[in-house]
Q: What sequence folds into this?
């Protein structure tokens, strides 16, 4: 018992260093992971274990993001069947907030990381561009809970958005060109004004969250 | 002055010319003062350079000083404006309403903890700190102010430490600091009123008492909660009432704006009645009301409301600063070097210390901590202004050194406004405080903001940890399910993306009108369109070949998404919608001119989507075309070849945002040569002839309001054009509204057009002007 305890401590420390979380946060997330996985090593199915996600319009994309290998920073593509704690943590690390100590380069890197995460959510076929179809799908999902918007509206909005990207990034398209899809650079470009690194983050608690987490898992 | 009556019984002749000044004196003087202040404002902008470096508040005070000097030399008394009631009941509410109404809500709620922290604790800290230090100074005999006791010092300190929204905003506006900083300072100003009111009343009460007991302190705390929460409660109550009222005002559109003003003012007055924080009441009222009211009222009422709010706020502010200057000269001063200088010093020092300490405490709770530069901005931006001034005038006369206090307050105000106001801009630029990118309100940004928020809410659920996204989500659900149903007339749960989309479409429509003429020659002809379709370019990314066409066409008519300024915009300007109207009017004229009967060719059949029964209107806003040219054109478009239209016209405009159906479109599409109609070929905005609910007669045809024509983002959809299946069109139009029925209430576009056009061609609302 003692040995495995220190082993997991080492592992946690290692993970903490790798992902940038603090040891406390890693431990908390580990507890949560164990709840979600039912105390097993890996998770296969996330949807059912978190009922609160049912109200989220893009829950599928979020769950898929966990199983997406591209978010693991190992330069792999494809999807995993199951994820272990390390992968879980890796995905969570995308949502770390910058601290006072983060340097400008680190902030830039964080920004790209977060943008990449969002990009991967769009780009489901992993060809490096977000095509119109993919964008449409995301918009449809986004609007699916906001009342009876309808597919047509979602399509129109997606079209408009694509057009925006086209017009801002490729200002002089000749009549024969067509805009294939949003590349990562274009994506960065259009979301330049959005202070990603300061807006896309979650406050990971340092204190023990067992009580809250318990409540969540039984709800 | 008046007609002098001769006491003798001589028969007085009919006076030809009489003057009765006293009768009109008060309104006349008010008008003159307002005009004078406004002229001053006009005058500033003559020299552009001045307003860059010197904030308007300083200039106004200077002018006030000059006028005050003039008045003093002719021994005139200025109107008692900055004293008590007139200020608090008439001049302050418009300013606060202005601030509250245009407050950017999303950043505000994200930072609300910090705002309240600084407002409450910060003000307390400042008051007590300054009060104590001044009391210590008073003990020094050399200054000769030993008669001021602790309570009076604390009272004075409370007045001095109130950061003033008027002064701060007018200075901070021009320096576009980052949003966090702006919101915190802004919020702090507005909400520290609660604390100031409580402390002021408490110390006022206490100053007259010989002994202070601990019970009183405890009561003071309790009173604070009553004041603060009561203010907010009243505000919310009146806000919801206003929203609810506007639900029923569709028949009385002319007086819609009135409700907004009356309810906010009522909130203010009722709060004053109970001596709770009236500023908080009116701000909360405005915040609550705005969201629901702007959906219920007509577009014109909305514009009117915004205009009037801005106007009143502007005038009040101008007058306040102006009178600050005037009264400075004309009051009797009591100067005491030591006391005043130390007041200045302490005000500055304690604010700086306060910001430092408070930020240290709250930074860990903030996700974007304030760095040192932000803190400097926070501390330096604490300007005092007219509220302090008015408060000091309302000090009871039982306080012996009231004149000294008045002088000291004026000194502090002038010092902060002038020195800090003028220097804040170069300093902020020098130390390079984080600036903001005034957000590009593009569809992409909005979509991704939403995406981000949902993702984060989802991840939070996964983590089992909640933060404000969770609450925001909950609130939005509550809002959609319950509040909107009660408070909004046509309740369609509309996502912000869709709302933004509508707005942007409208703007694009305007812009297109403007750019259309320039791009006519660049648009492709029908022939080339045809060829494109036949060409076999690899189109691997798109769903259908036609989508590629659409993009070509669209990209040709290049447009830039106009950078929209959000509500967090220049204080002295409205969110810019006025341009659109001018564009429309200009276009109106030029379109009429360019429409000539001979300009259309029948080779345009490809554009025709209906077999002659419907006409596609090329131009985006019908009304412009409506009156003149149609009848002559009708005969032209006799029989489009249906087959060709099917084959060549896979493009159908997606008319997703229309809610009203009967649309009559006049087809002006022409070949490659025509005038404005030209653009139709290259223009994806060929309006989809949606279901026409009545037969087209020339009159109704003209009279019909146009659907969303000419909106770029409406890409043309691939699909066989089937005149019978106009249900498609209906689907589109119904889709957005969420209700698939024909509504008689015009949609957003309609109302906007009604508002902007002022035409009488609409047969829907004859009364709407």
A:
């Amino acid at each position: 018992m003692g040995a495995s305890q220190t082993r997991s401590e080492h592992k946690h420390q290692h993970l903490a260093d790798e992902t940038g979380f603090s040891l406390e946060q890693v431990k908390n997330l580990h507890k949560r992971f164990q709840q979600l996985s039912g105390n097993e090593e890996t998770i296969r199915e996330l949807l059912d274990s978190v009922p609160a996600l049912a109200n989220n319009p893009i829950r599928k994309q979020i769950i898929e993001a966990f199983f997406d290998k591209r978010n693991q920073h190992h330069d792999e593509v494809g999807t995993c069947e199951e994820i272990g704690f390390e992968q879980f943590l890796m995905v969570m690390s995308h949502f770390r907030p910058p601290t006072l100590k983060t340097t400008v380069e680190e902030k830039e890197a964080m920004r790209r990381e977060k943008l990449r995460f969002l990009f991967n959510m769009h780009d489901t076929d992993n060809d490096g561009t977000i095509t119109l179809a993919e964008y449409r799908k995301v918009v449809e999902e986004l609007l699916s809970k906001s009342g009876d918007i309808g597919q047509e509206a979602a399509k129109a909005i997606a079209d408009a958005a694509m057009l925006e990207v086209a017009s801002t990034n490729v200002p002089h398209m000749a009549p024969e060109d067509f805009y294939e899809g949003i590349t990562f650079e274009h994506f960065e470009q259009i979301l330049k004004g959005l202070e990603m690194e300061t807006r896309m983050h979650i406050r990971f608690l340092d204190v023990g969250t067992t009580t809250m987490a318990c409540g969540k898992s039984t709800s | 002055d008046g007609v002098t009556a001769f006491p003798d019984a001589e028969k007085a002749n009919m006076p030809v010319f009489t003057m009765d000044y006293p009768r009109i004196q008060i309104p006349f003087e008010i008008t003159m003062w307002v005009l004078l202040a406004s002229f001053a404002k006009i005058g500033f902008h003559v020299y552009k350079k001045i307003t860059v470096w010197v904030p308007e508040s300083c200039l106004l005070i200077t002018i006030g000083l000059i006028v005050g000097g003039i008045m003093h030399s002719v021994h005139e008394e200025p109107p008692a404006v900055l004293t008590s009631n007139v200020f608090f009941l008439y001049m302050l509410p418009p300013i606060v309403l202005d601030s509250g109404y245009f407050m950017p809500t999303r950043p505000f709620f994200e930072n609300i903890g910090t705002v309240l922290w600084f407002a409450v604790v910060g003000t307390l800290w400042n008051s007590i700190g300054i009060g104590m230090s001044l009391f210590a100074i008073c003990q020094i005999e050399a200054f000769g102010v030993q008669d001021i006791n602790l309570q009076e010092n604390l009272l004075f300190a409370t007045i001095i430490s109130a950061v003033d929204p008027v002064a701060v905003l007018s200075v901070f506006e021009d320096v576009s600091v980052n949003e966090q900083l702006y919101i915190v300072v802004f919020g702090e100003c507005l909400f520290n009123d609660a604390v100031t009111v409580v402390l002021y009343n408490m110390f006022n009460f206490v100053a007259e008492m010989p002994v202070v007991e601990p019970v009183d302190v405890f009561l003071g705390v309790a009173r604070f909660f009553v004041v603060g929460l009561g203010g907010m409660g009243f505000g919310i109550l009146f806000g919801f009432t206003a929203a609810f009222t506007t639900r029923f005002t569709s028949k009385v559109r002319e007086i819609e704006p009135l409700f907004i003003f009356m309810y906010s003012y009522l909130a203010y007055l009722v709060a004053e009645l109970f001596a709770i924080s009236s500023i908080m009441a009116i701000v909360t009222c405005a915040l609550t009301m705005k969201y629901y009211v702007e959906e219920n009222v007509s577009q014109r009422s909305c514009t009117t409301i915004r205009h009037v709010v801005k106007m009143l706020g502007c005038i009040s502010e101008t007058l306040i600063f102006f009178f600050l200057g005037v009264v400075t000269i004309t009051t009797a001063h009591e100067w005491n070097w030591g006391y005043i200088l130390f007041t200045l010093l302490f005000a500055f020092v304690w604010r700086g210390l306060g910001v430092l300490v408070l930020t240290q405490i709250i930074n860990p709770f903030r996700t974007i901590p304030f760095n040192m530069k932000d803190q400097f901005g926070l501390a330096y931006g604490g300007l005092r202004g007219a509220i302090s001034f008015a408060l000091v005038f309302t000090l009871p006369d039982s306080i012996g050194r009231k004149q000294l206090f008045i002088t000291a307050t004026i000194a502090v105000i002038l010092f902060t406004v002038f020195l800090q106001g003028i220097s804040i801009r170069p300093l902020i630029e020098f130390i390079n405080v984080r600036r903001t990118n005034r957000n590009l309100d593009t569809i992409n940004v909005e979509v991704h903001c939403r995406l981000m928020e949902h993702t984060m809410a989802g991840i939070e659920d996964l983590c089992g940890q909640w933060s404000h996204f969770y609450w925001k989500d909950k609130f939005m659900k509550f809002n959609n399910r319950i509040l909107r149903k009660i408070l909004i007339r046509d309740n369609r749960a509309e996502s912000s993306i869709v709302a933004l989309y509508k707005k942007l479409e409208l703007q694009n429509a305007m812009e297109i009108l403007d750019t259309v003429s320039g791009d006519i020659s660049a648009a492709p002809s029908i022939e080339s369109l045809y060829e494109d379709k036949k060409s076999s370019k690899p189109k691997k990314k798109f769903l259908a070949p036609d989508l590629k066409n659409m993009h070509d066409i669209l990209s040709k008519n290049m447009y830039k998404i106009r950078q929209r300024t959000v509500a967090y915009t220049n204080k002295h300007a409205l969110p810019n919608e006025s341009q659109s109207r001018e564009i429309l009017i200009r276009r109106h004229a030029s379109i009429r001119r360019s429409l000539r009967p001979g300009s259309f060719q029948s080779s345009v059949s490809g554009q025709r989507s209906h077999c002659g029964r419907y006409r596609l209107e090329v131009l985006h806003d019908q009304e412009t075309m409506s009156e003149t040219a149609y009848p002559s054109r009708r005969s032209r478009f006799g029989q489009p070849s249906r087959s060709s239209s099917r084959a060549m016209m896979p493009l159908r405009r997606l008319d997703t945002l229309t809610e009203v159906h009967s649309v009559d479109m006049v087809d002006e599409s022409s070949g490659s040569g025509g005038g404005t109609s030209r653009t139709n070929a290259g223009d994806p905005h060929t309006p989809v002839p949606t279901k026409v609910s009545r037969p087209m007669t020339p009159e109704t045809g003209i009279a019909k309001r146009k659907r969303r024509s000419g909106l770029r983002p409406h890409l043309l959809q691939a699909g066989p054009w089937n005149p019978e299946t106009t249900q498609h069109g209906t689907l589109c139009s119904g889709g957005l509204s969420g209700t698939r029925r024909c509504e008689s209430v015009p949609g957003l576009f309609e109302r906007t057009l009604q508002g902007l056009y002022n035409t009488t061609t609409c047969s829907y609302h004859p009364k709407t002007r």
Summary: The CA atoms of residues 66 and 355 of chain B lie 36 Å apart. The radius of gyration of chain B is 32 Å.
